[in-house]
Amino acid sequence: MFVLELENPTYNHKSSYNDDQMLLHEAPSTVLVNGEAGDYPPMQNFESVKNVFYIESVKLWGIAAPIAFNILCNYGINSFTSIFVGHIGDVELSAVSISLSVIANLSFGFLLGMASALETLCGQAFGAGELEMLGVYMQRSWIILIVTCFCISPLYIYSTPVLKLLGQRHDIAEIAGKFSIKIIPQMFSLAVNFPTQKFLQAQSKVGILAWIGFVAFVLHIGVLFLFIKVFKWGLEGAAAAYDISAWGIALAQVGYILGWCEESWKGFSWLAFKELWAFVKLSVASAIMLCLEIWYFMSIIVLTGHLEEPVLAVGSLSICMNLNGWEGMLFIGVNAAISVRVSNELGSGHPRAAKCSVFVTIVESLLIGMLSMLLIIATKNHFAIIFTSSERMQKAVADLAYLLALTMFLNSIQPVISGVAVGGGWQGLVAYINLVCYYIIGLPIGFLLGYKTKLGVQGIWMGMIFGTFLQTLILLIIVWKTNWNEEVAQASERMRRWSGQSSDHEFDRATL
After folding, report:
1. Per the structure, how many domains does the chain have?
2. Cα separation, 457 vs 446, whole angstroms
3. 289-337: per-residue pLDDT in tens?
4. Phi and psi for 37 in degrees, rounded to 5?
Protein backbone atom coordinates (compact mmCIF):
# COMPACT_ATOMS: atom_id res chain seq x y z
CA MET A 1 0.00 0.00 0.00
CA PHE A 2 1.30 3.42 -0.98
CA VAL A 3 0.94 6.02 1.75
CA LEU A 4 2.31 9.52 1.27
CA GLU A 5 2.42 11.35 4.59
CA LEU A 6 3.78 14.75 5.49
CA GLU A 7 5.38 13.72 8.74
CA ASN A 8 8.72 12.88 7.15
CA PRO A 9 12.00 13.91 8.77
CA THR A 10 12.33 17.65 8.78
CA TYR A 11 14.96 19.82 7.28
CA ASN A 12 15.18 23.43 8.39
CA HIS A 13 17.08 25.72 6.09
CA LYS A 14 17.45 29.45 5.80
CA SER A 15 18.00 31.29 2.58
CA SER A 16 20.65 33.96 2.44
CA TYR A 17 18.18 36.19 0.65
CA ASN A 18 16.07 38.67 2.52
CA ASP A 19 12.59 37.29 3.15
CA ASP A 20 11.05 40.34 1.49
CA GLN A 21 12.80 39.34 -1.74
CA MET A 22 11.44 35.79 -1.70
CA LEU A 23 7.95 36.61 -2.92
CA LEU A 24 5.65 33.75 -3.77
CA HIS A 25 3.12 33.64 -6.57
CA GLU A 26 -0.47 33.65 -5.42
CA ALA A 27 -2.12 30.40 -6.47
CA PRO A 28 -4.55 31.10 -9.33
CA SER A 29 -6.81 28.19 -8.45
CA THR A 30 -7.43 25.58 -5.79
CA VAL A 31 -6.55 21.92 -5.98
CA LEU A 32 -9.55 19.77 -6.76
CA VAL A 33 -9.57 16.29 -5.32
CA ASN A 34 -12.73 14.17 -5.55
CA GLY A 35 -14.67 17.30 -6.44
CA GLU A 36 -13.66 19.22 -3.33
CA ALA A 37 -11.38 22.23 -3.07
CA GLY A 38 -8.39 21.98 -0.80
CA ASP A 39 -5.27 19.93 -0.13
CA TYR A 40 -4.86 16.32 -1.23
CA PRO A 41 -6.04 13.70 1.26
CA PRO A 42 -3.54 10.99 2.29
CA MET A 43 -3.04 8.49 -0.53
CA GLN A 44 -3.60 4.97 0.73
CA ASN A 45 -4.40 2.97 -2.42
CA PHE A 46 -3.40 2.76 -6.08
CA GLU A 47 -6.53 4.54 -7.28
CA SER A 48 -5.76 7.67 -5.24
CA VAL A 49 -2.15 7.62 -6.45
CA LYS A 50 -3.32 7.36 -10.07
CA ASN A 51 -5.75 10.23 -9.51
CA VAL A 52 -3.02 12.50 -8.14
CA PHE A 53 -0.66 11.58 -10.98
CA TYR A 54 -3.31 12.55 -13.51
CA ILE A 55 -4.20 15.85 -11.83
CA GLU A 56 -0.58 16.87 -11.32
CA SER A 57 0.44 15.86 -14.83
CA VAL A 58 -2.28 18.05 -16.33
CA LYS A 59 -1.30 21.01 -14.15
CA LEU A 60 2.44 20.55 -14.70
CA TRP A 61 2.45 20.17 -18.46
CA GLY A 62 -0.19 22.84 -18.92
CA ILE A 63 2.45 25.26 -17.69
CA ALA A 64 5.62 23.51 -18.83
CA ALA A 65 4.74 22.49 -22.38
CA PRO A 66 4.31 25.97 -23.94
CA ILE A 67 7.33 27.33 -22.04
CA ALA A 68 9.48 24.36 -23.01
CA PHE A 69 8.38 24.56 -26.65
CA ASN A 70 9.26 28.25 -26.79
CA ILE A 71 12.67 27.57 -25.22
CA LEU A 72 13.32 24.68 -27.59
CA CYS A 73 12.52 26.87 -30.58
CA ASN A 74 14.81 29.61 -29.31
CA TYR A 75 17.54 27.08 -28.66
CA GLY A 76 16.97 25.70 -32.14
CA ILE A 77 18.09 29.03 -33.52
CA ASN A 78 21.48 28.51 -31.83
CA SER A 79 21.61 24.85 -32.81
CA PHE A 80 20.85 25.35 -36.49
CA THR A 81 23.31 28.20 -36.68
CA SER A 82 25.98 25.69 -35.60
CA ILE A 83 24.65 23.06 -38.01
CA PHE A 84 24.93 25.38 -41.02
CA VAL A 85 28.36 26.65 -39.94
CA GLY A 86 29.53 23.05 -39.39
CA HIS A 87 29.14 22.43 -43.11
CA ILE A 88 31.40 25.40 -43.87
CA GLY A 89 34.38 23.85 -42.07
CA ASP A 90 35.63 22.30 -38.82
CA VAL A 91 37.63 25.38 -37.77
CA GLU A 92 34.59 27.60 -38.37
CA LEU A 93 32.42 25.19 -36.36
CA SER A 94 34.85 25.28 -33.43
CA ALA A 95 35.12 29.08 -33.57
CA VAL A 96 31.36 29.70 -33.70
CA SER A 97 30.82 27.09 -30.97
CA ILE A 98 33.33 28.94 -28.78
CA SER A 99 31.58 32.24 -29.48
CA LEU A 100 28.07 30.92 -28.79
CA SER A 101 29.01 28.60 -25.92
CA VAL A 102 31.37 30.95 -24.08
CA ILE A 103 30.87 34.61 -25.00
CA ALA A 104 27.15 34.59 -25.89
CA ASN A 105 26.29 32.04 -23.21
CA LEU A 106 27.95 34.14 -20.53
CA SER A 107 25.86 37.19 -21.38
CA PHE A 108 22.75 35.01 -21.88
CA GLY A 109 23.07 33.54 -18.39
CA PHE A 110 23.64 36.85 -16.66
CA LEU A 111 20.86 38.71 -18.49
CA LEU A 112 18.40 35.84 -17.96
CA GLY A 113 19.29 35.78 -14.28
CA MET A 114 18.82 39.53 -14.01
CA ALA A 115 15.40 39.27 -15.67
CA SER A 116 14.39 36.41 -13.37
CA ALA A 117 13.57 38.95 -10.65
CA LEU A 118 10.41 39.64 -12.66
CA GLU A 119 9.17 36.08 -12.09
CA THR A 120 8.64 36.95 -8.44
CA LEU A 121 7.62 40.59 -8.75
CA CYS A 122 5.24 40.27 -11.70
CA GLY A 123 3.73 37.09 -10.26
CA GLN A 124 3.00 38.81 -6.94
CA ALA A 125 1.56 41.88 -8.62
CA PHE A 126 -0.68 39.76 -10.84
CA GLY A 127 -1.87 37.69 -7.87
CA ALA A 128 -2.62 40.85 -5.88
CA GLY A 129 -4.64 42.34 -8.74
CA GLU A 130 -2.23 45.27 -9.23
CA LEU A 131 -1.97 44.66 -12.96
CA GLU A 132 -0.56 48.12 -13.70
CA MET A 133 2.58 47.27 -11.77
CA LEU A 134 3.48 44.50 -14.22
CA GLY A 135 4.21 47.07 -16.91
CA VAL A 136 6.21 49.22 -14.48
CA TYR A 137 8.34 46.27 -13.38
CA MET A 138 8.95 45.28 -17.00
CA GLN A 139 10.09 48.79 -17.89
CA ARG A 140 12.49 48.85 -14.93
CA SER A 141 13.93 45.57 -16.11
CA TRP A 142 14.34 46.94 -19.65
CA ILE A 143 16.33 49.88 -18.31
CA ILE A 144 18.56 47.74 -16.11
CA LEU A 145 19.21 45.08 -18.75
CA ILE A 146 20.00 47.59 -21.50
CA VAL A 147 22.55 49.27 -19.23
CA THR A 148 23.93 45.82 -18.41
CA CYS A 149 24.33 45.09 -22.14
CA PHE A 150 26.53 48.18 -22.55
CA CYS A 151 28.63 46.96 -19.63
CA ILE A 152 28.98 43.49 -21.19
CA SER A 153 29.77 44.78 -24.71
CA PRO A 154 33.56 45.00 -24.15
CA LEU A 155 33.58 41.23 -23.62
CA TYR A 156 32.32 40.84 -27.20
CA ILE A 157 34.56 43.55 -28.64
CA TYR A 158 37.72 42.15 -27.05
CA SER A 159 36.72 38.48 -27.20
CA THR A 160 39.71 37.55 -29.38
CA PRO A 161 42.38 38.54 -26.81
CA VAL A 162 40.19 37.15 -24.02
CA LEU A 163 39.96 33.75 -25.73
CA LYS A 164 43.69 33.77 -26.46
CA LEU A 165 44.34 34.58 -22.81
CA LEU A 166 42.20 31.59 -21.90
CA GLY A 167 44.46 29.47 -24.08
CA GLN A 168 42.39 29.01 -27.22
CA ARG A 169 44.26 28.38 -30.47
CA HIS A 170 44.93 31.69 -32.22
CA ASP A 171 43.15 30.95 -35.50
CA ILE A 172 40.04 29.77 -33.62
CA ALA A 173 40.15 32.80 -31.30
CA GLU A 174 40.45 35.20 -34.26
CA ILE A 175 37.42 33.81 -36.06
CA ALA A 176 35.41 33.54 -32.84
CA GLY A 177 36.23 37.15 -31.98
CA LYS A 178 35.05 38.46 -35.34
CA PHE A 179 31.84 36.46 -35.08
CA SER A 180 31.25 37.69 -31.50
CA ILE A 181 31.41 41.34 -32.59
CA LYS A 182 28.82 40.67 -35.29
CA ILE A 183 26.32 39.18 -32.81
CA ILE A 184 26.34 42.12 -30.37
CA PRO A 185 22.85 43.14 -31.64
CA GLN A 186 21.57 39.72 -30.53
CA MET A 187 22.77 40.43 -26.99
CA PHE A 188 20.81 43.70 -26.87
CA SER A 189 17.69 41.90 -28.10
CA LEU A 190 17.79 39.81 -24.91
CA ALA A 191 17.38 42.99 -22.84
CA VAL A 192 13.96 43.37 -24.47
CA ASN A 193 13.14 39.68 -24.88
CA PHE A 194 13.60 38.42 -21.32
CA PRO A 195 11.52 41.06 -19.46
CA THR A 196 8.63 40.74 -21.93
CA GLN A 197 8.82 36.96 -21.59
CA LYS A 198 8.57 37.09 -17.79
CA PHE A 199 5.78 39.68 -18.08
CA LEU A 200 3.69 37.30 -20.19
CA GLN A 201 4.52 34.22 -18.13
CA ALA A 202 3.29 35.91 -14.95
CA GLN A 203 -0.15 36.21 -16.57
CA SER A 204 -0.07 32.61 -17.90
CA LYS A 205 -0.01 33.94 -21.46
CA VAL A 206 2.45 31.25 -22.49
CA GLY A 207 0.70 30.14 -25.68
CA ILE A 208 1.75 33.28 -27.56
CA LEU A 209 5.38 32.67 -26.53
CA ALA A 210 5.21 29.21 -28.08
CA TRP A 211 3.82 30.54 -31.36
CA ILE A 212 6.36 33.35 -31.62
CA GLY A 213 9.21 30.94 -30.92
CA PHE A 214 7.98 28.46 -33.54
CA VAL A 215 7.57 31.05 -36.30
CA ALA A 216 10.99 32.56 -35.53
CA PHE A 217 12.64 29.13 -35.60
CA VAL A 218 11.19 28.23 -39.00
CA LEU A 219 12.06 31.62 -40.48
CA HIS A 220 15.58 31.40 -39.05
CA ILE A 221 16.28 28.18 -40.95
CA GLY A 222 15.09 29.87 -44.15
CA VAL A 223 17.22 32.95 -43.55
CA LEU A 224 20.28 30.78 -42.78
CA PHE A 225 19.80 28.87 -46.03
CA LEU A 226 19.38 32.09 -47.98
CA PHE A 227 22.40 33.88 -46.49
CA ILE A 228 24.81 30.91 -46.37
CA LYS A 229 23.77 28.56 -49.20
CA VAL A 230 22.35 31.03 -51.72
CA PHE A 231 24.21 34.31 -51.09
CA LYS A 232 27.42 32.52 -49.92
CA TRP A 233 27.97 35.03 -47.11
CA GLY A 234 29.61 32.44 -44.82
CA LEU A 235 30.03 33.40 -41.17
CA GLU A 236 28.79 36.93 -41.85
CA GLY A 237 25.53 35.46 -43.12
CA ALA A 238 25.23 33.22 -40.03
CA ALA A 239 25.72 36.21 -37.72
CA ALA A 240 23.22 38.35 -39.64
CA ALA A 241 20.58 35.59 -39.51
CA TYR A 242 21.23 35.17 -35.78
CA ASP A 243 20.70 38.89 -35.11
CA ILE A 244 17.59 39.17 -37.28
CA SER A 245 15.87 36.18 -35.65
CA ALA A 246 16.67 37.38 -32.11
CA TRP A 247 15.24 40.84 -32.70
CA GLY A 248 12.23 39.38 -34.49
CA ILE A 249 11.32 37.43 -31.34
CA ALA A 250 11.81 40.43 -29.04
CA LEU A 251 9.77 42.83 -31.19
CA ALA A 252 6.97 40.29 -31.72
CA GLN A 253 6.58 39.90 -27.95
CA VAL A 254 6.53 43.69 -27.48
CA GLY A 255 3.95 44.00 -30.25
CA TYR A 256 1.68 41.50 -28.56
CA ILE A 257 1.95 43.33 -25.24
CA LEU A 258 1.14 46.70 -26.81
CA GLY A 259 -1.87 45.30 -28.68
CA TRP A 260 -3.36 42.64 -26.43
CA CYS A 261 -2.39 43.39 -22.82
CA GLU A 262 -4.48 46.48 -22.12
CA GLU A 263 -5.05 45.68 -18.45
CA SER A 264 -1.40 45.15 -17.54
CA TRP A 265 0.20 47.60 -20.00
CA LYS A 266 -0.81 51.21 -19.35
CA GLY A 267 1.95 52.88 -21.34
CA PHE A 268 5.39 54.14 -20.40
CA SER A 269 5.60 55.38 -16.83
CA TRP A 270 7.99 57.58 -14.84
CA LEU A 271 7.63 55.03 -12.04
CA ALA A 272 10.00 52.82 -14.01
CA PHE A 273 12.85 55.12 -12.95
CA LYS A 274 12.02 54.92 -9.23
CA GLU A 275 13.68 52.50 -6.80
CA LEU A 276 16.05 51.31 -9.53
CA TRP A 277 18.86 50.51 -7.10
CA ALA A 278 16.68 48.16 -5.05
CA PHE A 279 15.57 46.52 -8.27
CA VAL A 280 19.18 46.17 -9.38
CA LYS A 281 20.12 44.42 -6.14
CA LEU A 282 17.23 41.99 -6.49
CA SER A 283 18.10 41.34 -10.14
CA VAL A 284 21.76 40.65 -9.38
CA ALA A 285 20.81 38.33 -6.53
CA SER A 286 18.51 36.40 -8.87
CA ALA A 287 21.32 36.09 -11.43
CA ILE A 288 23.90 34.54 -9.12
CA MET A 289 22.33 31.09 -8.74
CA LEU A 290 21.54 30.75 -12.45
CA CYS A 291 24.96 31.98 -13.61
CA LEU A 292 26.84 29.55 -11.39
CA GLU A 293 25.05 26.73 -13.20
CA ILE A 294 25.17 28.02 -16.79
CA TRP A 295 28.83 29.07 -16.62
CA TYR A 296 29.78 25.67 -15.21
CA PHE A 297 28.85 23.97 -18.46
CA MET A 298 30.40 26.81 -20.44
CA SER A 299 33.75 26.23 -18.74
CA ILE A 300 34.06 22.70 -20.13
CA ILE A 301 34.43 24.21 -23.62
CA VAL A 302 37.19 26.53 -22.37
CA LEU A 303 39.11 23.69 -20.69
CA THR A 304 38.80 21.53 -23.80
CA GLY A 305 40.41 24.22 -25.94
CA HIS A 306 43.73 23.60 -24.14
CA LEU A 307 43.94 19.95 -25.14
CA GLU A 308 45.82 18.48 -28.07
CA GLU A 309 43.92 18.74 -31.37
CA PRO A 310 41.59 21.46 -30.01
CA VAL A 311 39.59 21.64 -33.26
CA LEU A 312 38.58 17.99 -32.93
CA ALA A 313 38.09 18.16 -29.14
CA VAL A 314 36.06 21.38 -29.09
CA GLY A 315 34.04 20.43 -32.17
CA SER A 316 33.05 16.97 -30.89
CA LEU A 317 32.24 18.26 -27.42
CA SER A 318 30.22 21.15 -28.87
CA ILE A 319 28.10 18.73 -30.88
CA CYS A 320 27.41 16.72 -27.71
CA MET A 321 26.63 19.86 -25.71
CA ASN A 322 24.32 20.97 -28.50
CA LEU A 323 22.24 17.79 -28.20
CA ASN A 324 22.39 17.97 -24.41
CA GLY A 325 21.11 21.51 -24.67
CA TRP A 326 18.02 20.37 -26.55
CA GLU A 327 17.01 18.18 -23.62
CA GLY A 328 18.11 20.91 -21.20
CA MET A 329 15.77 23.43 -22.79
CA LEU A 330 12.86 21.04 -22.26
CA PHE A 331 13.68 20.74 -18.58
CA ILE A 332 14.00 24.50 -18.17
CA GLY A 333 10.27 24.52 -18.96
CA VAL A 334 9.71 21.80 -16.37
CA ASN A 335 11.87 23.78 -13.95
CA ALA A 336 9.66 26.85 -14.37
CA ALA A 337 6.48 24.80 -14.05
CA ILE A 338 7.44 22.98 -10.84
CA SER A 339 8.62 26.26 -9.35
CA VAL A 340 5.19 27.77 -9.98
CA ARG A 341 3.39 24.65 -8.73
CA VAL A 342 5.35 24.50 -5.47
CA SER A 343 5.07 28.21 -4.73
CA ASN A 344 1.35 28.25 -5.59
CA GLU A 345 0.54 25.32 -3.33
CA LEU A 346 2.66 26.61 -0.45
CA GLY A 347 1.01 30.00 -0.77
CA SER A 348 -2.42 28.33 -0.76
CA GLY A 349 -1.60 26.34 2.38
CA HIS A 350 -1.50 22.94 0.64
CA PRO A 351 1.64 21.15 1.90
CA ARG A 352 0.58 17.70 0.70
CA ALA A 353 -0.20 19.02 -2.79
CA ALA A 354 3.23 20.67 -2.96
CA LYS A 355 4.90 17.42 -1.98
CA CYS A 356 2.83 15.37 -4.44
CA SER A 357 3.67 17.80 -7.23
CA VAL A 358 7.38 17.32 -6.54
CA PHE A 359 7.05 13.52 -6.48
CA VAL A 360 5.08 13.32 -9.74
CA THR A 361 7.44 15.70 -11.55
CA ILE A 362 10.55 13.78 -10.50
CA VAL A 363 9.09 10.45 -11.62
CA GLU A 364 7.99 11.77 -15.03
CA SER A 365 11.29 13.60 -15.55
CA LEU A 366 13.24 10.43 -14.77
CA LEU A 367 11.30 8.57 -17.45
CA ILE A 368 12.12 11.26 -20.00
CA GLY A 369 15.78 11.17 -18.95
CA MET A 370 15.96 7.38 -19.35
CA LEU A 371 14.38 7.60 -22.80
CA SER A 372 16.90 10.27 -23.86
CA MET A 373 19.80 8.20 -22.53
CA LEU A 374 18.71 5.07 -24.44
CA LEU A 375 18.16 7.08 -27.63
CA ILE A 376 21.69 8.51 -27.54
CA ILE A 377 23.26 5.09 -26.90
CA ALA A 378 21.25 3.53 -29.74
CA THR A 379 22.32 6.22 -32.25
CA LYS A 380 25.84 6.93 -30.95
CA ASN A 381 27.52 6.19 -34.31
CA HIS A 382 25.08 8.19 -36.41
CA PHE A 383 23.70 11.38 -34.79
CA ALA A 384 26.86 13.43 -35.48
CA ILE A 385 26.11 13.28 -39.22
CA ILE A 386 23.53 16.00 -38.63
CA PHE A 387 26.27 18.42 -37.59
CA THR A 388 29.33 17.49 -39.65
CA SER A 389 30.45 15.50 -42.69
CA SER A 390 33.95 14.90 -41.22
CA GLU A 391 34.44 11.22 -40.38
CA ARG A 392 37.10 12.07 -37.77
CA MET A 393 34.67 14.41 -36.03
CA GLN A 394 31.90 11.78 -36.17
CA LYS A 395 34.24 9.21 -34.58
CA ALA A 396 35.21 11.66 -31.82
CA VAL A 397 31.54 12.32 -31.07
CA ALA A 398 30.78 8.58 -30.91
CA ASP A 399 33.54 8.17 -28.32
CA LEU A 400 31.75 10.71 -26.09
CA ALA A 401 28.26 9.25 -26.56
CA TYR A 402 28.12 7.32 -23.27
CA LEU A 403 29.11 10.41 -21.27
CA LEU A 404 26.47 12.39 -23.16
CA ALA A 405 23.86 9.74 -22.30
CA LEU A 406 24.76 9.85 -18.60
CA THR A 407 24.68 13.66 -18.62
CA MET A 408 21.22 13.65 -20.18
CA PHE A 409 19.98 11.31 -17.47
CA LEU A 410 21.32 13.52 -14.68
CA ASN A 411 19.95 16.63 -16.38
CA SER A 412 16.45 15.17 -16.18
CA ILE A 413 16.59 15.32 -12.37
CA GLN A 414 18.75 18.32 -11.52
CA PRO A 415 16.60 21.09 -13.10
CA VAL A 416 13.48 19.73 -11.41
CA ILE A 417 15.06 19.80 -7.97
CA SER A 418 16.42 23.29 -8.64
CA GLY A 419 12.91 24.40 -9.59
CA VAL A 420 11.57 23.01 -6.32
CA ALA A 421 14.25 24.97 -4.48
CA VAL A 422 13.25 28.18 -6.24
CA GLY A 423 9.57 27.54 -5.53
CA GLY A 424 10.36 27.03 -1.86
CA GLY A 425 12.56 30.14 -1.67
CA TRP A 426 15.87 28.36 -1.14
CA GLN A 427 17.88 30.27 -3.77
CA GLY A 428 20.70 31.22 -1.42
CA LEU A 429 21.15 27.66 -0.25
CA VAL A 430 21.27 26.33 -3.82
CA ALA A 431 23.80 29.00 -4.80
CA TYR A 432 26.19 27.76 -2.09
CA ILE A 433 25.65 24.14 -3.12
CA ASN A 434 26.34 25.00 -6.78
CA LEU A 435 29.51 26.85 -5.85
CA VAL A 436 30.91 23.93 -3.84
CA CYS A 437 29.83 21.04 -6.07
CA TYR A 438 30.61 22.67 -9.39
CA TYR A 439 33.60 24.94 -8.87
CA ILE A 440 35.35 23.53 -5.80
CA ILE A 441 34.83 19.82 -6.61
CA GLY A 442 33.68 19.23 -10.21
CA LEU A 443 36.00 21.53 -12.16
CA PRO A 444 39.23 20.58 -10.31
CA ILE A 445 38.48 16.87 -10.76
CA GLY A 446 37.76 17.46 -14.44
CA PHE A 447 41.02 19.38 -14.82
CA LEU A 448 43.04 16.60 -13.18
CA LEU A 449 41.41 13.84 -15.22
CA GLY A 450 41.67 15.80 -18.45
CA TYR A 451 45.27 17.02 -18.18
CA LYS A 452 47.03 14.61 -15.81
CA THR A 453 45.74 11.42 -17.45
CA LYS A 454 45.25 10.29 -21.04
CA LEU A 455 41.48 10.72 -20.84
CA GLY A 456 41.52 14.21 -22.38
CA VAL A 457 38.08 15.64 -23.08
CA GLN A 458 36.45 12.53 -21.58
CA GLY A 459 38.27 13.17 -18.29
CA ILE A 460 37.14 16.79 -18.18
CA TRP A 461 33.57 15.73 -18.77
CA MET A 462 33.76 12.96 -16.15
CA GLY A 463 34.80 15.46 -13.50
CA MET A 464 31.97 17.78 -14.36
CA ILE A 465 29.46 14.93 -14.34
CA PHE A 466 30.61 14.08 -10.83
CA GLY A 467 29.98 17.68 -9.73
CA THR A 468 26.49 17.57 -11.22
CA PHE A 469 25.77 14.20 -9.58
CA LEU A 470 26.89 15.49 -6.17
CA GLN A 471 24.77 18.62 -6.47
CA THR A 472 21.72 16.59 -7.54
CA LEU A 473 22.19 14.11 -4.69
CA ILE A 474 22.41 16.86 -2.07
CA LEU A 475 19.29 18.61 -3.38
CA LEU A 476 17.38 15.32 -3.45
CA ILE A 477 18.24 14.72 0.20
CA ILE A 478 17.14 18.26 1.10
CA VAL A 479 13.81 17.83 -0.71
CA TRP A 480 13.23 14.42 0.86
CA LYS A 481 13.80 15.76 4.38
CA THR A 482 11.83 18.96 3.92
CA ASN A 483 8.97 19.57 6.34
CA TRP A 484 6.30 20.90 3.98
CA ASN A 485 4.07 22.05 6.81
CA GLU A 486 6.91 24.30 7.97
CA GLU A 487 7.35 25.55 4.41
CA VAL A 488 3.68 26.50 4.28
CA ALA A 489 4.06 28.42 7.56
CA GLN A 490 7.08 30.30 6.22
CA ALA A 491 5.29 31.09 2.96
CA SER A 492 2.25 32.41 4.82
CA GLU A 493 4.46 34.65 6.95
CA ARG A 494 6.22 36.08 3.91
CA MET A 495 2.94 36.76 2.13
CA ARG A 496 1.47 38.40 5.24
CA ARG A 497 4.49 40.67 5.67
CA TRP A 498 4.47 41.62 2.00
CA SER A 499 0.76 42.31 2.04
CA GLY A 500 1.30 44.64 4.99
CA GLN A 501 3.98 46.52 3.13
CA SER A 502 1.85 46.78 0.03
CA SER A 503 -0.98 48.38 1.97
CA ASP A 504 1.32 51.14 3.17
CA HIS A 505 2.16 52.29 -0.33
CA GLU A 506 -0.28 53.78 -2.78
CA PHE A 507 0.26 53.04 -6.44
CA ASP A 508 0.69 56.36 -8.20
CA ARG A 509 -0.09 56.25 -11.91
CA ALA A 510 2.30 58.58 -13.59
CA THR A 511 2.37 58.04 -17.33
CA LEU A 512 4.41 59.87 -19.92
Report:
1. 1
2. 9
3. 777 777 777 677 667 766 666 777 777 877 888 788 778 778 888 877 8
4. -80, 140
